[in-house]
Amino acid sequence: MKKNFGTAALGLLMLLMISSCKKDQRALDMNVSAVSTLLAPANATSLNLEPGGAGLTFKWSAATAADGGLILYEVAFDKASGDFSKPVYRILSDGSGVQTQATIPADTLNKIASLAGVASSSTGAIKWTVMASKATNVQLSQSANTIQVTRPAGFAIPPTTLYLTGTATEAGAADISKSLAFKQITPGVFELYTSLQPGTYQLTDKASSTGTKYYLDDKGIIQQGAGTTTITAAKSAYRIRLNFNVATSSVVGIQSLGLFMSAYNSEIGQLSYMGNSTWENPKIPVTFYQFSWGRDERYKFVLHTSNGVEYLGSSNVNNSAPAGQPASYFYLTPVGNAQWDNTYKFDPSIDTHNAKVDVYFTASAPYSHTATAVN
Questions:
Q1: What is the DSSP letter of 95?
Q2: Which helix (H) or strand (E) holds 140?
Q3: pTM to 2 decimals?
Q4: Which residue in 92, 224, 252, 361 is a FRET match for 281, CA 20 to 30 A apart?
């Protein structure tokens, strides 16, 4: 009898616990209102976008949630003719989406305007509104403001890779998969050391027929499209720098690359362009300079261009001997013209011998050089 009573009591306790749990359960209320008022920027505001310029703060009235909980906000942008069914861009509000404002950088607004069809160096309209959401319930505001934006020159979404192709290039135009790769210096900025000959060249973001094409117009401004740039001068080495952020280019002729020895304060040899972004001299006579304290072996490089003289050397102002140093010891970086600073040191085996010197402006690796003793 006692056993039956205990079992019944345990069952009753479990029923009470289940009942208590059911009473504590509440249905999740996802009801949320739409944002009723867009506060800033006002409708028809004009905005001149500058690269790296100050951002713009978008503000709106708060939506309300039935349960008083947090609401997530996104600012949505669309073309002037759009209805926000497929916004060109969405961005969370400040505070990871919970504040009733969003501070958006000028560079991001430039990208948004580009996606909305506003061309660079031109003025066009974009629309914005706010989406308020709670869980899966998203409410689009019935209000939308228009902004007139003036975009700067340049590409809001620059390529991340870039190649050179065409009859004027070392790779030719027959096989675009062999196009020459640029080195990306910083986002949107590319550089290539190469040679050009009479013919035409074009830029592409892919070494294939599906790539987006670019060219330089007669003012050196980067344009998107199927146009080409013409070269009429005799074959020569060049450094091509392209800044897609502001659509500018610099195509500089390289007249010579010299080996500068500090103790002599002069160039002791010249390197010749060999193709494939490489300069070489197979045999430069090198004799260290005799000072009272010892023999001096310091050197760097001098690049003579159509824009003037530039120096290339070590990132270290002072260097030790090259033996046992990492590959980075030989990396090339733009330096000043100080006679003794930012130099390398020849290996002792080169003293009173010939040096084979190679300089590599390779797109796939840091710019570097080698200097080895030869007979």
A1: H
A2: strand 137-140
A3: 0.77
A4: 252
